[in-house]
Amino acid sequence: MDLPVIADDVPHLSRVVPSMLHALGAEGFAADLDLPRVSRACVLLVDGLGWELLGEYAADAPTLSALWRTPLRAGYPATTAAGLAALGTGLASGEHGMAGYTFEVPGTGVLNALRWCSHPDGADLSESLAAEDVQPLPTTFAGAAEAGLTTSVVSSAKFAGTSLTRAVLRGGTFVGVHALGDLVSATHTALEQPGSFCYAYHSELDLLGHLYGPGSAAWRMQLRQVDRLVESIVDGLPEDSLLAVVADHGMVAVDDTVADVDTTPALREGVRALGGEVRARHVYTEDGATADVLAAWHETLGPRAWVAERDHAIELGWFGERVSDRVRPRLGDVVVAARAHSGVVRSEAEPMESRLVGQHGSFTPAEQLVPLALAYG
């Protein structure tokens, strides 16, 4: 079975913030997206808003659909921790190292990057595992502040000071918000002065996609609220400003072809730990077992997934142009990316995640392609 080879015909999500900072006149940032010069800019990340979904449900998002837009590539794995880190570092997962929803950190075990806890037992790691050690590279937000820009991170108040926030968003002034109203208001306030850069985040579309499925009635109603959010921000944009609406990944609804590790002995033999998520798995093998595990997962999953040994996946560019020595051990000895609407669940170890309708992480266009939609004040 042919494995995906990453091409550069669609720009990576990591190019967005450096290009916006270049447009603001900050030195040292590449202008890969060729944006016009402005005096203030904001990137709004709508979690889970795929390019294909936006196209299919354009009638529910007339404001977004009317903006100039082009697709971006989320990168592998197509998941929130990696997407936020791509914006926050200007790099792909092979360098920033936020390699999935869960991934192994040598000396610690498998980390749930969103909750910053041990996976799957849930033990809190916020005190024992420093965010700055897991992701030590300088952030784009710190670079913006050092360049003299007034830099704001506008997100839910519950994320203030969390380990994930420190890992990928440090460097900007955090502004905690509680609902759509103060998200809009805080974004406008952050753009009042020339020389301002703002990052804003909205999470609920992704949540409803997971619970009810992308394209469900509940998801479409939330998309309408997202469109009103964008309309409200656009209406209040000051002169000489830029708003870029992006997403961290798209989403698919999984079907009954999923494989369950916890009820399939062939998927457990030789496996010492399992990371990733339903559509993108890191399989960590016991010493000397990688070849056997690779063969077993190939045979068991068949056409339901792409299965690759770690070095082969790296050679194919799955994790970006470069994979650092710091990041390499976080990647599975065997890497598994689901095809079509399948996946790999863990009904006993991950009961909540295994029940979700909407999933993401893999290489399908529905997951990989996200919008870059631009509006100017």
From TrEMBL:
Entries under InterPro entries matching the protein: Alkaline_phosphatase_core_sf, Phosphodiest/P_Trfase
GO molecular function, one term: hydrolase activity
One of the Pfam families matching this protein, by short name: Phosphodiest
UniProt signal peptide: none
Stated name of the protein: Phosphodiesterase
Organism of origin: Prauserella muralis
Lineage summary: Bacteria, Bacillati, Actinomycetota, Actinomycetes, Pseudonocardiales
